[in-house]
Amino acid sequence: MNEASATENPENKPPRAGGRIGRAVFLLITVGCFTYLYFRIAGAAAREGLSVAAYMAGVFANVSWGWWLLLMMAYSLFYFAIDTLVASQALNWFIGKIRYRDILPVRASAYIISIFNEQVGKGAMAWYLNRRHGVPGWEVGSVMLFIMFCEVFYLLIWATIGHTFGGGGLPEVFGLIPWIALGGGLFWLLWLGYFRGILLPGLKLRERRILSAFRQAGARHYLYFFLLRSPALLAAVVVYTVALNLFGVDASVTMLLPYLPVIFFAATVPTPMRAAAITFWVILFPENEGQMAAFGLVQHNFFILFNALIGLLFWRRAQRDLFG
Q1: Are 300 and 267 in contact (CB under 8 A)?
Q2: Structure pTM?
Q3: Residue 14: inside a domain, yes or no?
Q4: Residue 179 domain-assigned (yes or no)
Q5: pLDDT for res 318
Q6: 95: how many CB neighbours lie within 10 A of its CB?
Q7: How many domains is the chain partitioned into structurally?
Q8: Residue 8 lies in a domain
Q9: Is 233 helix (H, G, I), strand (E, B) or coil?
Q10: 3 state SS of 243
């Protein structure tokens, strides 16, 4: 191996300082979240004169697990159907005709990788479509970026709607949501104007192939994305409301509508077990520390693990599509 190729080999490069700092930050967030959870649960257990183990055993014993399991399995399957529909429609908008049933195996298989990181799962979809359908990798990557971008704004819109109709009983910090939404809306208008060539026409960043979906996207595509994705969130509001009641916590649809988009956004942070999302439940329902810690832990992790199980059912078909 010559010197040039050795330099180009990423394995020979020393790890970047930025990567080490990022991992350290995520580790600190995780440790901080679980430390906070432990002390909240320990305090609740002490108030009832119990050990932490006995207190949490009582919490788990009082859940209607059979009904909860049926509810979550149905929701996971519904989410899978909507998620695949969104991905197939976005690909049809910006690349070409790709059938819904052709996306099913790769979307399902990507859930296995998504256990660790949702965005890496989308990268696996791009690789599959490149190998299976010959779609240029840059173009597929561009569509995946478009989906990720839209998901942030879709959650922000629903958080704003929820705050508008149920903001009275929310923690004070949720008062920032309308201001964040205002800033997000202004940013989206500038973003759309730039990629439509109205703003900064001389700046050629928009011409990069990885951004091709944004050049093609008009306002209607962002609206269609919101409408296609929204049934999954609305179903989640109902499902999580019922699930919370199964855990012995009084909750209503109007209460959860502003909460869930924020919690789902926190769940995108790639900390182990998405500790930030689990911690949010305890912060938002401070009178039910044990129930909410158990709920956050079980609810979120069952969802990603059951989705991975769906992926295993499609795994052989995905392999067959790729390798024959």
Answers
A1: yes
A2: 0.81
A3: no
A4: yes
A5: 65
A6: 19
A7: 1
A8: no
A9: helix
A10: helix
Q: Which long-range contacts (CB under 8 A, 24 or more apart) does 215-220 make?
A: 216/93, 216/94, 217/93, 217/94, 217/146, 217/192, 218/192, 219/192
For the ranges 24-38, 118-132, 254-268, 305-319, the lowest mean pLDDT is seen at 118-132
Q: Closest Cα partner for 285 from 231, 230, 240?
A: 240
> Can you point out the beta strands (E) in the chain?
none
Cβ atoms of 158 and 227 closer than 8 Å: no
**33-54 confidence digits (pLDDT tens):** 778 888 888 888 888 888 888 8
- What is the H or E stretch that residue 149 is in? helix 137-166
Residue for token digits 């020393």? 14
**The Cα angle at residue 84 between residues 133 and 298, in degrees rounded to 5:** 130
Residues in the chain: 324
Residues 117 and 314: their CA atoms lie apart, in Å, by 19
Range of the domain at 82: 20-323
**Residue 295 and residue 245: Cα distance in Å, rounded?**
10
Query: Can you tell me the distance from the alpha carbon of 205 to that of 67, in angstroms, rounded to the nearest whole number?
Result: 52
Distance CA 155, CA 159 (A): 6
Q: Write the DSSP symbol of residue 269.
A: S
Q: Establish if 9 belongs to a structural domain.
A: no
